[in-house]
Specification:
The chain is of the alpha/beta class. The chain contains 36 helices and 33 strands. It has an eight-stranded mixed β-sheet with strand order 14-24-23-16-17-18-19-15. An eight-stranded parallel β-barrel has the order 26-27-28-29-30-31-32-33, surrounded by five helices. Helix 20 (518-530) crosses helix 36 and helix 25 crosses helix 26. The chain binds phosphoenolpyruvate and magnesium ion (MG). Magnesium ion (MG) binds next to helix 32.
């Protein structure tokens, strides 16, 4: 028989996986001899078993719960469900990692119609007894039976109004008795049965509710955003009640040992006299700052501070504590390492190192790599955000907070931005010609597209907040409005986007600028000391490259050359090239393009100051580049000296049923070798000239995309070598250059030993590799992945977090096979996963040389790489 239930005194802080964070810390505090109301914890394994049994708690577990309950009764000298001396308990959830999306607490469990009367008599405080019972009915109905709180709050408000009082503390015992009668009748009406009177039934229902809450939609979303596996389960802690609502010598509160927003040292928190549980945060009465407790109850305050300090020293981290005072007696209900903003995390880590409490290695391990996003992008002012109304939710494609007026075209966004407005660009999907509007916008919202769609990739590069794939939006571009969350938003109305959570808010929510200070540099320097992986960036312009260097990039792992033609004066030129029907026309179009490209390559090489730069040859998926709007078609017709009809016909001929698997990547260079040849000339000339001008030793790295066959790579490579050698001769240069490929087609991974014969380096293009391994389009997957999360088929978006099980195997195989052919094969990753901490850890384990990610994610990758090395 397994052990499914532990008394607090049987556990300790190391048993977090089994007892959850709350259970493990309650056990630890018990061992430390602190004033903790005693109890027991039902393990996370019991939760997993509940699901394995088809959502049932098996007999054995129930038996152990009742045994633990009997021991608790003995300890407390009270009896559960007893009519003379009833034991009351609280029931709370507690997973390994704290998860705010889960179940709320249930307090006062064990009360019923009979015991409440005994309780009233015994305490000599009927008001308190009835208040406890009405709270219990409300919490049980809401949390266990999922009966909306609003029914109960409505009754409470009605009676307060009838009695002419403002606060529930002003209600008399008689008023509360009336409330109980009404609460119970609502329960009966809605549930079709009486409110359960048997305490053991109440308890088992509450435990089941905690287990069920592990899989509620909020919890699933939270897990996906925080990389928490679905098979961890949650524990349940059952704890003897202490009461903060017995009168004016009682109260309840929450406190942090340091300020969770800024990290500043010193106690920070609030409490409320004569209150229970959620009252402190519910905002009905205004809580008092914790320092006031020193005046109100000096002895309690002194003891509180001693314990708070003891806990921080014990855990060597900032603590978030809940406490209750019952008739001037202090109890701690929980402690945990407090959640904190990114600036606070850095401040606290640096302070703890300076105070000699932790080492720099521990400091590195403690900071959540993903949270560094907050430091580099604007954030919402916390108070303002709390008041915001959420309209909807979609993919958090590029982090940061943005608020502005809605515009539906890039032109309108640009125009209103130039007029001094803050704008949000809302599009069905973005395409390259939107680039200026995207630049002008504070934030971008798209109806279609996944985490690697055009909008997502470009916005991340620019550091602009973006939410993509919001299929719930009903957009009417002609009428310039959209509908979401029951609201109609018209052009010029304000909305706010949180690109870090994917939430879309109504109205203009105040944001504040990002700030990076000395703490950031200190932590980054520590991280750099320990990491093994190099960190490069994906950058396509000199400005992005320079920004990435500031953020610590050690090279460019991916320069997408087709992205260099997004500017409005350039896009017609690349379109002209794509639509050319003869070699002559194509060479003419290319001649208009390549000089720009050479200039940009020079700019990038200069910005990178001799650091390595991988330049990826053209890979324009045609659906992103072929014009669709009438005015773009007209402009192109003029430029190509063709009729609109002819251009339309050419576009139609280029139409592909599946452009992501279409005529792109090296397939273009196989069909039209002149493209690769002219790009080679631009790369080589730029590198030689910058080396000559600046005294660098740049060795150009030319990367051929979308290769699936050695001969295909060899074919393109031959063109590259032919031109590269010619340029070297023309310049009298002996510059060294490298030719490699992306591994982004499963066949390339399978045949990596052959491909490595022609490639000096591999860069894993995990956007396409994921798309092709799963067989679903990176642009369309957003539409159906939600159903997969809800059905627990997938836990996370494989375009954000690398699928180590499947795609990971291909990478591992390609590394092994590639290195067998070429032991010094240089290896990196440049798909979007290069900036995701869990994926970075995987890359470290596989022994890649570097990861490459968008500039703003470089610090995240640096920290994640150090954390991986220190695991
Ligand atoms: C990839 O496929 O992972 C990649 C980096 O290339 P792109 O996103 O440009 O297709
Ligand atoms: Mg690709």
């Amino acid at each position: 028989m397994g052990k499914w239930v532990y008394l607090f005194k049987e556990g300790n802080a190391d048993m977090r996986n089994l007892l959850g964070g709350k259970g493990a810390n309650l056990a630890e505090m018990t061992n430390l001899g602190l004033p903790i109301p005693q109890g027991f914890t039902v393990t996370t394994e019991a939760c997993i078993d509940y699901y394995d049994q088809g959502k049932m708690i098996k007999e054995e577990i129930q038996m152990q719960i009742f045994e633990a309950l009997a021991k608790l009764e003995e300890q407390q000298g009270k009896k559960f469900g007893d009519n003379d001396n009833p034991l009351l308990v609280s029931v709370r959830s507690g997973a390994r990692a704290s998860m705010p999306g889960m179940m709320d607490t249930i307090l006062n469990l064990g009360l019923n119609d009979v015991s409440v009367e005994v309780f009233a008599k015994k305490t000599g405080n009927p008001r308190f007894a009835y208040d406890s019972y009405r709270r219990f009915i409300q919490m049980f109905s809401d949390v266990v039976m999922e009966l909306s709180k609003t029914f109960f709050e409505g009754i409470l408000d009605e009676i307060k109004e009838k009695k002419g009082v403002q606060y529930d503390t002003d209600l008399t015992a008689e008023d509360l008795r009336e409330i109980i009668v009404r609460y119970k009748s609502v329960y009966k009406e809605k549930m079709g049965e009486e409110f359960p009177q048997e305490p053991k039934v109440q308890l088992m229902e509450a435990v089941k509710a905690v287990f069920r809450s592990w899989d509620n939609p909020r919890a699933i979303v939270y897990r996906r955003m925080n990389d928490i596996p679905g098979d961890w389960g949650t524990a349940v802690s059952v704890q003897a009640m202490v009461f903060g609502n017995t009168g004016n010598k009682s109260g309840t509160g929450v406190a942090f040992t340091r300020n969770p927003s800024t990290g500043e040292k010193g106690i920070y928190g609030e409490y409320l006299i004569n209150a229970q549980g959620e009252d402190v945060v519910a905002g009905i009465r205004t809580p008092l700052p914790i320092k006031r407790l020193e005046e109100d109850m000096p002895n309690v305050f002194k003891q509180f501070m001693e314990i708070a300090n003891k806990l921080e020293n014990h855990y060597r981290d900032m603590q978030d504590m809940e406490f209750t005072i019952e008739d001037e007696k202090l109890f701690f209900l929980q402690t945990r390492n407090g959640k904190r903003t990114a600036p606070a995390a850095l401040q606290i880590a640096c302070d703890l190192v300076d105070e000699g409490k932790i080492t720099p290695i521990e400091a590195i391990k403690r900071i959540e790599a993903k949270s560094l996003d907050q430091l580099l992008h604007p954030m919402f002012v916390v108070k303002a955000l709390q008041e915001g109304k959420v309209l909807g939710h979609a993919l958090p494609a590029s982090p940061g907070a943005a608020a502005g007026k809605v515009y539906f075209t890039a032109e309108a966004a640009k125009e209103h931005h130039n007029a001094g407005e803050r704008v949000i660009l809302v599009r069905l999907e973005t395409s390259p010609e939107d680039i200026e509007g995207m630049h002008a916008a504070e934030g971008i919202l798209t109806v279609r597209g996944g985490m690697t769609s055009h909008a997502a990739v470009v916005a991340r590069g620019m550091g602009t907040a973006c939410i993509s794939g919001c299929g719930e939006i009903k957009i009417d571009e002609a009428a310039k409005l959209f509908e979401l969350g029951g609201e109609i938003i018209s052009e010029g109305d304000y909305i706010s986007l949180d690109g870090s959570t994917g939430k879309i808010y109504l109205g203009d929510i105040q944001t504040e600028e990002a700030q990076i200070g000395g703490n950031f540099e200190r932590i980054m320097a520590w991280a750099d000391e320990y990491r093994k992986l190099k960190v490069r960036t994906n950058a396509d312009t000199p400005a992005d490259a320079a920004n990435a260097v500031k953020l610590g990039a050690e090279g460019i792992g991916l320069c997408r050359t087709e992205h260099m033609f997004f500017e409005p004066d350039r896009i017609p030129k690349i379109r002209q090239m794509i639509l050319s029907t003869t070699e002559e026309e194509r060479i003419k179009a290319l001649s208009g393009l390549i000089p720009y490209q050479k200039q940009d390559f020079k700019g990038i090489y200069e910005a990178m100051e001799g650091r390595p730069v991988t330049i990826r040859f053209l890979d324009p998926p045609l659906h992103e580049f072929v014009p669709t709007e009438e005015k773009d078609i007209e402009e192109l017709a003029k430029r190509m000296e063709l009729t609109v009809k002819q251009v339309k016909k050419a576009c139609d001929e280029l139409h592909e049923f599946n452009p992501m698997m279409g005529h792109r990547g090296c397939r273009l260079a196989v069909t039209y070798p002149e493209i690769a040849k002219m790009q080679t000339r631009a790369v080589m000339e730029a590198a030689i000239e910058v080396n000559n001008e600046r005294g660098f030793h740049i060795e150009p790295e030319i990367m051929i995309p979308l290769v699936g066959e050695k001969k295909e790579l060899k074919f393109v490579k031959d063109s590259v070598i032919e031109v590269a050698e010619k340029v070297k001769k023309e310049y009298g240069s002996n510059i060294i250059y490298h030719i490699g490929t992306m591994i982004e087609i499963p066949r390339a991974a399978l045949l990596a030993n052959e491909i490595a014969e022609e490639a000096e380096f591999f860069s894993f293009g995990t956007n396409d590799l994921t798309q092709m391994t799963f067989g679903f389009s990176r642009d369309d997957a957003g539409k159906f992945l939600d159903a997969y999360y809800k059905s627990k088929i997938y836990e996370s978006d494989p375009f954000s977090k690398l699928d180590q099980n499947g795609v990971g195997q291909l990478i591992e195989m390609a590394i092994k096979k590639g290195r067998a052919t070429r032991p010094d094969l240089h290896l990196g990753i440049c798909g979007e996963h290069g900036g995701d901490p869990a994926s970075v850890e995987f890359c470290h384990k596989l022994g890649l040389d570097y990861v490459s990610c968008s500039p703003f994610r470089v610090p995240i990758a640096r920290l994640a790489a150090a954390q991986a090395a220190l695991k």
